[in-house]
Specification:
With 355 residues, the protein is of the alpha/beta class. The chain is 39% helix and 13% strand. Helix 1 packs across helix 2, helix 1 packs across helix 3 and helix 10 crosses helix 11.
Amino acid sequence: MSTGSGPTTRRRSSTPARPTIRDIAREAGVSVATVSRVTHDDPRVTGETKKRVQEAIDRLGYTPSSLGRALSYQRTNTLGIVLPGLGGPYFAALIEGAESVALERGVAINVLGTHLRPDAVGSVRQLAERTDGLLIAGGTLPDDEVARLSRTGRVVLVAGSSADAPSVLTDGRGAAAELTRHLIEVHGHRRMRFVGEPDGSPDTTRRYEGFRDALAAAGLREAGAPLHYGLDVRSGALAAREVHESVLPDALVCANDELAIGLLATLPGLGHRIPADVAITGFDDQSLAAIASPRLTTVHQPVTELGARAAAGALGEELGPSTVLETRLVIRESCGCTDAAAVSSAPATPEAPEA
């Protein structure tokens, strides 16, 4: 006689299994990390990907575990800034603008200068792992690396352009063309040279293109090849000595103010009067431009705002593919204008509609 009750059968619970983060990842066709970022409202995941993940979450009824949330993901509260170098007023103003946004949001900044680093790309990748977003100066990294970083994090370019990351910049080409037209139309200059390395940065390239645009529109040619120098004051002094030993043009159009300041400081000592013998112009409108002797005609661009807008975008603020900030031509004495004409030209504003 059998005293047993036969094999024991375990009954399955009628309660459906709770969906996991892996279930959501499979449903949406993304990685577990991407799902985690969406549930934490990470700005690095946007658009169609975020929508697809959120739809999978709603469809499966997934609720993130608060414990898992705390253990698996933490914001770094750090903004990464990648620049080719850290010297000079331009980069100082850019960092100042980015820092103003970081302070408002309680975020620290980590600045990386790639100049002289043998493994610049590797250093930027390491920085990206420790930050919530990256602000990268245009031309600092190869395009394919910008694309790679953009696939895994929030990247915004300053003074550059990319098909893979939003950018914040000014119209350097148009501004340089306007400046060159002033030299042609107001002062009658015909023999002009560009000072700066056109292949050195996207900014310099666009300014050189604008310079050439204005010459071509006036039926003029360059008085000589560009003077290939860097963007610092010392390079401007070296450029001054080079033009002193050749035929002096009517005007020298510099890629930035630092180059122009170097020329202003050196050419008079070599026997050349500014602007009587040669006009000098800059770009950026740094603080020294207004107190140089003669005061420097230049283009004002809002460098601090460039840094601020790019930082806000890198930390999650919505940006379009290209955000273009306004510049204005600043007329002073180094181009040949008198004290009475040494005023800033305001940017054009639309006329008010008639009543």
